[in-house]
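Review form for a predicted model. The reviewer records the input and the model, then writes brief findings.
Reviewer: anonymous (R2)
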Amino acid sequence: MDLYLPIANLSVNIFVIVGLGGLVGLLSGMFGVGGGFLTTPLLIFYGIPPTVAAASAATQVTGASVSGVIDHLSRDTVDVRMGAVLVGGGVVGAVFGAGIFSLLQAAGQMDTVIAILYVVLLGSIGLLMAYESVHSIVAMRTGQRPPARKRRHHPLVAALPFRWRFYKSGLYISPLAPFLLGIATGVLTMLLGVGGGFIMVPAMLYLLGMTTQVVVGTSLFQILFVTMASTLVHSLTTKAVDLVLAMLLLLGSVTGAQIGTRLSRKIRPEYLRIGLAFVVLVVAIRMALGLGWRPDEIYTLDVR
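Model under review:
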């Protein structure tokens, strides 16, 4: 059953798009990630223009984040003050990212830049996750206990002026650190359509030194508002948001996330992490190969 996407300017199979959303939702529920970093590449593989894929994926991440934020707020695992600073930086980053997006789009290099950024980000993150997961599995099988992580913010963060107290996070640091982190995430959200959780969570743990109890909830809080801002900026500037595509993805991801959450309770975290690392590396390799393959159609027409 085909449906025409007005912004992407092509017809797609409804069940395929809902299935892609369901697959991403399944992975999100199993591995605890937003899934936006997989949505955009999968849409590109299917034939959706990269600019539309990135903008629409951000819209889908917004919808998928709502239930998670509500759940964490009810459990009091969100540092709202830290989240507000991250959101402020994310909004600034989204506006800045929109300018970069428009410049690259006008130069005809947006598709290539998206692919290169995904190869670099997914490749490096996948390798780091695989390395950590293999060490955890080896330690588990040999009976060794991995050393406990010392919660400490980075020396560069400690050197910044104007310190604030973030009571929920147990920190006394400069708000400039999370603000700059928010800017970086906002730029990535605009360019790649990702929520940024796969970068935000490690940065909150190892750079800011936040307590683990509030990291995921605060990250989701920031992702919700930054993807909302990114969707608004995309709608007003690039005009690349396809709401029909986003709704189909959201329909599948909500269902898939519920199934993935149930499966995650039956599998050890170490095996979940190495499974996610494998998926991330496969997507990165496929994106890298796509940069070198000659496309079926060398030239495309863009109607404005």
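Findings: The radius of gyration is 19 Å.
Further findings: The mean pLDDT is 77.
Recommendation: see findings above.
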